[in-house]
Amino acid sequence: MNTGAAAGKTFLLKMWENYPKTWKFLIDLGIFLKYKTLNTSKIPNQIVLPSSNTIFVNSEENRGRALLISNGMTQKRLTNFWNNAVNEYSPDLVIDVGVNYGECIFSTNYPTHTQIYGIEANRDLLKYIHQSREVHHNKAQIKIFNVFAADKVAEKTFYVDKHWSGTSSAAYRPAHDMIEQTTVRSDTIDSIVEEDVTNKNILFKVDVEGYEAFVLRGMTELIQKSNSALGFIEFNSEYMENSGVNLSDFLRFLQQHFSVYIYVKNELVNGSQLTLSDLHKLFGSKYVHTDMILVKNVKEQINLLQFSSAS
Predict the structure, then answer these.
(1) Is 127 part of a structural domain of the chain?
(2) Total count of domains within the chain
(3) Domain assignment of residue 6, yes or no
(4) Nearest to 206 by CA among 185, 221, 228, 188
(5) Is residue 187 helix, strand or coil?
(6) What pLDDT does 175 receive?
(7) What is the domain range of residue 115?
(8) Residue 64 falls within a domain, yes or no?
(9) Which of 140, 158, 216, 225 is the most buried (most CB within 10 A)?
(10) Which strand (E) or helix (H) includes residue 78?
(11) Are the CB atoms for 297 and 283 separated by under 8 Å?
(12) Model-level pTM?
């Protein structure tokens, strides 16, 4: 998202956390305007995406309802990147960390040689993810794991946001009281992936509310063994710092393993040599919330500029 969009999203998330009843009213209003009813038995629980693939959602949960209102297109930049990457890059291995309802992983069809992994820590979403998988063209190639992706195997406290599934996290506990504290097993992507990725091409997305650094450290072996890798991550400095991440160290880690491209005002900027101080100047703030594209040995014909699109 561009700087303004990032700020807007952050504002909305904070307002959502501080005034959940107000935002629930607005979501309900959007549902009523679209379906002319608030009777949940008359509100659909599935969405046909532009690719003609279907995702299933909980029509009683607010993020599911927001997806219904927007026809499943709440993250247009990510969807654009993902579809272009699958079509142009033709990956051997796909990894979606932070599946949520699956609007990324199920947004397109994949080559028959591609193995697809979906990782989601929120067990409340598994029912809908599996329903979407069962009607997907590549269902035999898709594996879903209910684990918390990290840099080590452990038991992890996880806060399920019953009000908005997209902010469920291990990084922080939202201020409102609509939280269910659970325990989930953490594991590394290196341990989860069964395929030998030597000389293979990997496409991945990581959106885990501040734990991106731990996820990437837990897939270092895959990245190093692969022939090439192309990834999309969210970079939210506040959430990451709440997770105990040293932002300068994480930025150096990214630059060590990838060429780094950063969305600034809806354009991609080469961030492979930028320091944290440079990011602060670039965004005019010590708080940085944006998306990054990570690239390792991707062929030159993959034009990164095609991944720049309005959020």
Answers:
(1) yes
(2) 1
(3) no
(4) 188
(5) strand
(6) 59
(7) 73-307
(8) no
(9) 216
(10) helix 76-89
(11) no
(12) 0.89
116 within 8 A of 105, measured Cβ to Cβ: yes
**pLDDT tens, position by position, 227-265:** 999 999 999 999 899 889 999 999 999 999 999 999 998
Collapsing DSSP states into helix, strand and coil, what is residue 304? Answer: helix
Backbone dihedral angles phi then psi of residue 18, each to the nearest 5 degrees: -85, -30
**Each residue's pLDDT tens digit, 25-56:** 888 999 999 999 999 899 999 999 999 999 99
d(CA 3, CA 7): 6
265: left (phi over 0), alpha (psi -120 to 50) or beta: left
**Residue 190 backbone phi and psi in degrees, to 5:** -55, -35
178 domain-assigned: yes
Between CA 97 and CA 189 the distance in angstroms is 9
In whole angstroms, what is the distance from residue 269 CA to residue 263 CA? 6
Q: pLDDT at position 14, please?
A: 59
> Which residue matches tokens 């929120």?
122
SS3 111: coil
Cα distance between residue 12 and residue 8, in whole Å: 6
Residues 129, 54 contacting (CB under 8 angstroms) = no
- Tokens 């598994």 locate to 126
pLDDT value at position 4? Answer: 44
Segments of the chain scoring below 50 in pLDDT: 1-9, 301, 305, 309-311
* 172: CB partners within 8 A, 6+ apart: 159, 209, 210, 239, 242, 243
Q: What is d(CA 28, CA 267) in angstroms, rounded to the nearest whole number? A: 34
Residue 256 has phi, psi (to 5 degrees) of -70, -35
Supply the CATH number for residue 95's domain: 3.40.50.150
pLDDT of residue 170: 63
